[in-house]
Protein 1
Amino acid sequence: MTDTRPVALVWLRNALRVDDNPVLQAALDGGFRPVPVYVHAPGDAGRWPMGAAQRAWLHRSLAALDARLRGLGSGLVLRSGRAQAVIERLVAESGAVAVYGDRRVEPAWRALDQRLDAALARSGVRLEMRQAALLFEPDAESVRTGQGTPYRVFTPFWKTLRRQWPQDRPLPAPTSLPPLPALATGTLADLDLAPRTAWDTGFWEHWEPGGAGAHELLDAFVEGAAGAYDAQRDLPDRIGTSRMSPHLHLGEISPRQILARLADARWNARQKAGIEAYERELAWREFSHHLLWHFPHMQEEDFNPRFARFAWAEPAPQVLEAWRHGRTGIPIVDAGMRELWACGWMHNRVRLIVGSVLTKNLRQHWLAGARWFWDTLVDADLANNSQNWQWIGGTGADAAPYFRIFNPVTQSERFDPHGRYIRQWMPELAALPGKAIHAPWTQPALLARYAPAYPKTPVVDLAESREAALDAFRALR
């Protein structure tokens, strides 16, 4: 039987899933024949086009989504180019009378949506955007202070969210979808996302992009680490976190699906503390997006304008190279940077440590770290990346106090006391005994004997650089 429903494009950006997809569901509820579309549009991303690690992930994620859609009778139309021109061309090719898309908070994409809305309206085609990545609309009146202004501090933001924490169930996936109309679907190769050399091979020992991989990882978290999340999330030598960030960023799973899975499990009183700690981290993600929506300058400028006068050190290319490639001579930092290089991800506690060393001890501008993470993280998200780097650098909203300068040695001794994380990612240090693993430069004889190729001293004196950073911060007061 011929499907006589009018066509609507379902433009998926960071909502690469079928389950709990309000964009797809809105098109179906509107009585339309949905045509799922992904447009690779790096030229529309402003100064933040997708980094290399995330493009490698996206290549596999789109393949997984296309397979899922084909299993339901549809498929995924793949195009590349400037999004407005591509969408307008697809409207003409398909005869679509509406376009449904997922709303994004990044300034460049918001500006694109406004231009596209106006262009489509002139042709009598309506554009409808749905929030598919967050639990709350970042501009919602219900997520503002009592004075009606955006939040700048997390704790009252979290209290506000907690009072209206979602309890509704995720949207079910459709049982079938209509076939695509006769138009060129494109291929993944056309998007040129996959690396031309296999530098990403190690990633896929740790990750399975796509919805199935996301739900498998969520199940493992619920059945394993979730109940002790508050106690173990800071320990990098074990799987104590959910590792859901790359799946959440591209929308392979929704935060509402995560909350529903947690709600369906049985927890004792002790475990409930772990679950609440995890939900608080989901709220931090909401906070980052809330901030970027209301303060778009934070993607590249200090949130706190006082820091325009801060005495950052001159760019130091050799030092930055040592930091990027895990050759600082500080084992916990080098282990984190090696983990990042090997699998496109880094444990959050270690992210704080390497960020503190870069922005406080080396006093390099936080953007130097944000740019490197943007290119190397599979979970690179502009809101999270900008907010997190400004937090650790002291320049952001609700930022770490200026005097909070993590000592990487004491952090290493506290959170990786047996050196298991360091030994995993720094095999050249594996033979170092006892506490020497945390600060090998303090025991030069052992370092020369067991790890002669490792730097004999760190790239910076930790005590002296700490005092210099404190002096620079005090100058702003």
Protein 2
Amino acid sequence: MAKIGIYGSSFDPITNVHLWTASTVAHRCHLDKVIFLPCSNKRRDKKMMTEDKHRLKMIQLAIKDNEKFITDDFELKQDAWKITTYETLKHFKKVYKNDDIYFIMGADLLVDIGNGKWGNGDLLIRENNFIVMARDGIDMVKVISRSPILRNNDDGSTFHLLDKGLAMEISSTYIREEFALGGEPRYLLPEACYNYIKEHCLYK
């Protein structure tokens, strides 16, 4: 039985912080695989600057040398307005039915789920396990205790709360802005992705 982490994000673009976070989580939580799961640009709650094919390709370039990292285009193929994280995790639990599945997310998303902003949030928490990464200014224990959705569906093993120990919060937004304004974000993302962005004139 393997332990598999599902790491969902827009990855627009994937950054060195994404990779460092996935590596840290895999090491500390003894994960056998981390699946990078880019969300579709058809989603109505997010505005992405880049076509799905480019974001997927950059992930593939970024993780090609790490045997623990894989990418999956499941959400890119779905009708984005019909699918929630709950349905996504049901899919992966069927694909990896003999393994333990964990959803990797930041504490900011835990706040959103606790406030009822996610579809099927009650079932999502009740039926799944989560690795939650600390964010500055968010007390994860208090977030859980103050939310009926979170505290009433936590059996004691639902949430693995993880403090990375180092605040590295450089965002994809920052990198996009640097490219757009003629900045130089070269060492904030993998070299292969930097070159890909330059080659395809992304984020101009």
